[in-house]
Amino acid sequence: MSAPRFGHTWMLAGLALALAAAVPAAVSQPATQALPAGIVEKTAVVDGVTLAYKTAGSGPVVVLLHGYAQTSHMWLPLMTKLAATHTVIAPDLRGAGNSQRTPAGYDKKTMAAEIRGLVRQLGYQQPVQVVGHDIGLMVAYAYAAQYPAEVQKIALMDAFLPGIGDWQNVWLMRDLWHFHFHGTTPEALVKGRERTYLEHFWNDFAADPKHSVSEADRQLYAAAYARDNGVHATFQYFSNFEQDAKDFAAFGRTKLPMPMLVLTGEKDRVSS
Predict the structure, then answer these.
(1) Residue 253 lies in a domain
(2) How confident is the model over 225-233, as a mean pLDDT?
(3) Is 104 exposed, middle or buried (0-12, 13-18, 19+ CB in 10 A)?
(4) Which residues are 65's β-sheet partners?
(5) Which CATH number do you get for residue 187?
(6) Are strands 87-91 and 49-57 parallel, antiparallel or unpaired?
């Protein structure tokens, strides 16, 4: 994973069509926006962790996993398209959005296991399609690698996989300092300035900042990451990359059996 890529509405729409055709200041409470008709948000306790998730539609199951500096809210435009023909489940990853901030458990192997647990707990036993963007890409890969018989198809967007290929060339790139920006001092610097920090991703990594994340969405995401010390939790996505690399290197010795779609933006320089 490089960093979140924004402004690729065409990519999300294309993913929706591809999947459908084949049957992708601190505040005490997060900012909210009305959900589109037919989409509901619920919570479930999976292996002791409370996960918030959005769901809609009926039919074959598609699981959508969001990236850093975002929550499941990013998928709403795609959910409205996919819900016509699919059951769509879009969780907030552990530590993000309305899901629980836990002291540990941010390696992607563990996060994938609880997403799979959520799917099973909701009563879906058939193989599902899994879509991951950015950090969610890593969780999606870990889901497919651990439970290949339970994944029909997988789509991976805008990221790299720790432990796979020349991943360290991305992980150690100078401009991607945020991969190493975690711990007590970085958290103290960001606390109370969550939006300033997140603007770095929405602006500096956007193909065109004028067509990046909307003002309403910026307010929602900043509030979500500020709530309950969400920055401390989500920084652990990055601090676990070395453990993820060990896990993924082991996974990578076995080829995934399901069809895979890999998407990256035209101006994305560092995904692999």
Answers:
(1) yes
(2) 93
(3) exposed
(4) 132
(5) 3.40.50.1820
(6) antiparallel
Q: Is residue 206 part of a domain?
A: yes
Helix (H) or strand (E) holding 50: strand 49-57
Residue with tokens 């059951």: 87
Q: How far apart are CA 121 and CA 119, in angstroms?
A: 5
Whether 267 is covered by a domain: the verdict is no
Residue 79 tokens read as 């959910």
Amino acid at 142: A
What pTM was computed for the model?
Answer: 0.84
The two three-digit tokens of residue 18, written as one number: 């591809």
Nearest 5°: the CA angle 239, 241, 246 is: 135
229-258 CB burial, b ≥16 within 10 A, e <16? ebbbbbbbbbebbebbbebbeebeeeeeee
Residue 209's pLDDT band, with cuts at 50, 70 and 90, is confident
- Average pLDDT across the chain, whole number: 85
Domain extent at residue 30: 9-260
What tokens appear for 101 in the block? 């901030």
In the block, which residue shows the tokens 């459908």?
20
Domain count, the chain: 1
